[in-house]
Amino acid sequence: MSLKKVLIKSLIFIFISIIILISITPFLWVFMSSFKTNKEILSGSLELPSIFGLKNYKDALRIAPIPQFYLNSIIVSVTATVASVFLFGMAAYVIARFQWKLKQSFRMMFSLGLLIPGAALLLPLYQTFTFTKLSDSLFGLVIVYMALGLPTTVYILTSYFLTIPKELEESAYLDGAGFFKTYCSIILPLTKPALGTAGVLEFLLAWNEFQFAMTLTVSNTKRTLPIALYYFKSQFASNYGAMFAATIMVVIPSIIVYMILQEQVVSGLTAGAVKN
């Protein structure tokens, strides 16, 4: 191996190592702090906790209604993910396969949705939800998260559908299969990587979103998990160990979901980029 190749690989390895270190260090610090006492945290020490106990986690569960928030987050995230993939998948398939006058306008409209900041939607959504009686409801949050994830989901799935040969669908039509049967039996099995990618991104959005959940919900029976940190911090800011324990409980599920489906995400993004 030439010196040039060794140098390039060494630089790549160093760069990736730095990125990994920057990404993992904050999580490890929060994780270790979730076992420390307030005195150990405020001392600024990077040492290990004196005792690895679950006291902070018990305090977090006692202070904030985390189990209820967990249940709400699961209901909202799973419902929004499944509904988005199912409904927007069919919309993306139609956009990718069929021709009509407003096709490019529809694609442009979905793409422009990526440019709208979430803060600009807060007031209109709040007024709309108040008028339609959808505020402080899990169903309302599901609608919001589906709408927020719509541009990304349609873009990913449309790009992937364009990579599938049309001959497969034409063969199914010749064999007597209808549109819906062709979509379910031929297209969906081939689109698993893209569906996995869109599903993971939608789930992470719904699970971690804070701004709309805080604005559009009032009661603890309707709020999702990220609100637990605000609720916890605003009233019990002195108990940092319990706050860090709550943070770990909030982020762990999203990390697990991404780790399980990371191969689907990578393959879906790379395959969808082949053709547009």
Averaged pLDDT? 83
Outline the low-pLDDT stretches.
Answer: 272-276
In terms of DSSP E residues, the strand content is under 5%
> Helical amount among residues, as a percent range?
over 70%
Q: What is the ordering of alpha helices and beta strands?
A: HHHHHHHHHHHHH
The name of the CATH topology is MetI-like fold
List its traits:
mainly alpha, 13 helices, MetI-like fold, 276 residues, globular
Give a written overview of the molecule.
By secondary structure, the chain is mostly helical. It has a single domain, classed as MetI-like fold. The chain has 13 helices and no strands. The protein has helices at 3-33, 38-42, 55-63, 66-97, 103-112, 119-132, 138-161, 166-174, 179-190, 192-208, 211-216, 226-235, 240-272. Helix 4 runs parallel beside helix 7 (138-161), helix 7 runs parallel beside helix 13 (240-272) and helix 12 (226-235) packs antiparallel against helix 13 (240-272). The chain starts with a helix and ends with a helix. Mean pLDDT is 83; it is low at 272-276.
Task: List strands and helices in order, with pairings.
Layout: H1 3-33, H2 38-42, H3 55-63, H4 66-97, H5 103-112, H6 119-132, H7 138-161, H8 166-174, H9 179-190, H10 192-208, H11 211-216, H12 226-235, H13 240-272
Describe this structure in a few short sentences.
With 276 residues, the chain is mainly alpha-helical.
